Amino acid sequence: MKRNLILSGGVAHDFARTSPMLADVLGGVGIQSEIHEDFTIVEDGSILNFDMLTLNCIRWTCSQPQVNPTWREEWHFELSEEAREGFLSFFNQGKGLLALHAATICFDDWSEYRKILGGWWDWEQSGHAPFQRHALNVHTDEHPMTEGIRDFEIDDELYTDPVIADSISPLIEGEWKGKRHPLLWLHEYGNSRICYNALGRGPEAFEHAANRTLLQRGARWVLNSATTEIDG
Asked: Which of 134, 143, 194, 226 has the least C-beta neighbours within 10 A?
């Protein structure tokens, strides 16, 4: 059984509810998850005991001039040098990352993270549509990630206008105000596989059949199971 570390927690999202739901989804394909909010597990090297990493959290400095929340002091987060070294050691071993929803906002004080994820939230342009039912477009059903999945609707918060690397071709997009926005992509960082899935504002995303399949396939893809068929 493969071991997955879920880094959870942060403001404005019900991670205490969605992270256990995510663990249950991944358990359906034989992946055992541990949920942690304390980054000591990254800093002390214990992260290396896991086969993959999942980010279901929102941890960032909250220091942008566009952001002036009442909770800034409570939720201000700086990624320690020890945590950066822990992440790099993990990826240097070719282990993969499943990054969800607010992961594009995370670790804004670490430029290398943008290369790892392949995209990021730019406070000058990025945003989100309201939480409501959104129609999503699946680009191709010929990729193992999206095979058999047709366009679908989901109740979620649709992220808009992230900055993504030129090499990335999104597999799923959502439309808002006449413009398409990338919601799911695959990326490689060295020998590590990275899957970003922008869905997951609340429990609805983890109950949705199509997204549950995408989460399971994304996890298996980052585990680099080259000889294992990716199925739902």
From this structure: 226
Look up residue 175 and give its two tokens. 């439309």
Residue 50 lies in a domain: yes
pLDDT tens digit at each of 232 positions of the chain: 999 999 999 999 999 999 999 999 999 999 999 999 999 999 999 999 999 999 999 999 999 988 877 888 899 999 999 999 999 999 999 999 999 999 999 999 999 999 999 999 999 999 999 999 999 999 987 899 999 999 999 999 999 999 999 999 999 999 999 999 999 999 999 999 999 999 999 999 999 999 999 999 999 999 985 333 444 3
Number of domains in the chain: 1
The answer to whether residue 39 is domain-embedded is yes
Domain range for residue 118? 2-222
Tokens standing for 2?
């493969």
Distance CA 206, CA 165 (A): 27
Q: Residue 102's domain is classified under what CATH number?
A: 3.40.50.880
**HSE-up of residue 73 (Cα within 13 Å, Cβ side):** 1
Q: Which residues of 57-85 are buried (b: 16+ CB within 10 A; e: fewer)?
A: bbbbebeeeeeeeeeeeebebebeeebbe
